[in-house]
Amino acid sequence: MTRADADRAPARARRPWPLIVFVLVLVAGGAFAAGRFSAFDATMAPNPADIGFARDMQVHHAQAVEMALIEYRATQDDELRVVAYDIATGQQAQNGEMYGWLVQWKLPQRGSEPLMAWMQGTEHDHGGAVTPQATEDELREAMGMATDEELERLRETAGTTQGDCLFTDLMIRHHTGALEMIAAVRELGSVPRVLQTAEAMADTQQREIDVLRSAQTRLGCG
After folding, report:
1. How far apart are CA 50 and CA 48, in angstroms?
2. In Å, how far are 36, 37, 118, 187 from 97, measured between CA atoms?
3. Which domains does the chain have, with CATH numbers?
4. Residue 112: what pLDDT?
């Protein structure tokens, strides 16, 4: 163990890791209940954009929560720890709510359509990347999601400045991909609660992008 690792160990030991996992379970459960019993207009059936958004954004959010937990557990940067906590708890809550929507709509959580098929042919199809010929990996890349190799590198460098910089880079790209999906559902969606949630997501993720960019400047990330 290096001296830097030894210095970091006490700080890591103080991390309330079981507590954050417990919090995530609570927020997801509470949000699921909110989504399950929220007052949808009983006369309004969801359209393909509402359904596709609820499904695909759960996939997208799940990876953001994973990356945020890696950062939260290891970082020595107080500001980034707070940002990681906010991302993990906020997006886990939204996942719980979107899960609840699909339950209320009596639809499966996953459909047979490829990711983002509901966006195909719109101006928000990630620059034409959403096509029937696109592979799953290509679609995930278009959504701004990290590859398995990038996630492994994030785990390996967690707790270092290099890891903090990688986290900010991956999360900015991730949020940017989400904003394209949000713009699409705001244009194509029909259910008021879906549109309201999308609006809140856009505001939050844009603010987080600004904070992450500021952190990159402060840390001297290349």
Report:
1. 6
2. 7, 10, 20, 21
3. 14-219 (1.20.1260.10)
4. 92
